[in-house]
Amino acid sequence: MKIFHVTNIIFLIIAELIFLPRSLFAQQLSATDIVRKTDEKLNGELTGYSVMTMTIIRPSWQRTVEFKSWSMVDDYALTLITAPAREKGQTFLKRKNEMWSWNPAINRLIKFPPSMMSQGWMGSDYTNDDILRESSVVDDYIHTIEGEEEIDGRMCYRIKLLAKEDAGVLWSHQLWWVDKKEFIVLKAELFDEDGLLVRTEYGKEIKILDGRLLPTLLELIPAENPGNKTVLKIIEMKFNVRMEESFFSQQNMKTIR
Q1: N or C: fewer beta carbons within 10 Å in the chain?
Q2: Cα 208 to Cα 216: distance, rounded to the nearest angstrom
Q3: Domain locations in the chain as residue ranges
């Protein structure tokens, strides 16, 4: 009888666990956990390599820039412009908190002052900070779960990222819609220090890249410029590519191809 009693207790515990709503398990993830998992989905490996195109769309014209990028953790990044011809060979380097650009046409190396981080990269709606990742969405913001919402048929966490007082970031706060299953940002809204919406971003065309499910088409739409848009398309992405810290050097800026 004692064995029967214990067995029934175990059965009841298992049954309760099985039939508990899945949302209770989801609550074990904090907002910061969700942001960290989302960030690591794209940037969490030791090294990375990518090939991308960026199309800058304006009401009366558009142009496309092609480039390759190499990165090591969050401290090192090197980007090479491969097209169009007039900008081919231009490079951008990040080493921790220092950033440079190299323009072979004028044979000039320029160090970025902090004031340049908010400027558009290559004339696009992306900033230099976006491309070179000076700030950290995990460390520089306070995160809260605002609710849930469906985007493109996928249930998402709605996460608010509020800038910490001592963080040198461009945005006062951000709103993210993060796929609950894959931890992919499907939509993001970014706000300035006055709380005004500056731009909206969308992640689309989700595909497997190097064994990882990721959005391969990113659309950035500025709020104050109707008809303007920047579309970033990921052609290739590899993680944990063999490279050393010495790869991210001013000398390599001038010779990388």
Answers
A1: N
A2: 9
A3: 24-255
Q: Tell me: the pLDDT tens digits for 137-192?
A: 999 999 999 999 999 999 999 999 999 998 888 899 999 999 999 999 999 999 99
Higher pLDDT, 138 or 2: 138
Retrieve residue 187's tokens: 């939509």
Q: Does domain 24-255 have CATH number 2.50.20.10?
A: yes
DSSP H or E run through 201 = strand 197-209
- Which amino acid would we find at residue 202? Y
Cα 168-81-84 angle, rounded to 5 deg: 125
Cα angle vertex 197, ends 218, 174, to 5°?
Answer: 65
Residues 6+ apart with CB under 8 A from 179: 151, 154, 155, 156, 185, 186
Neighbours of 88 (CB within 10 A): 16
Q: Residue type at 184?
A: I
CA neighbor of 257 nearest in space, from 89, 61, 93: 89
Whether 54 and 126 have beta carbons less than 8 Å apart is answered as: yes
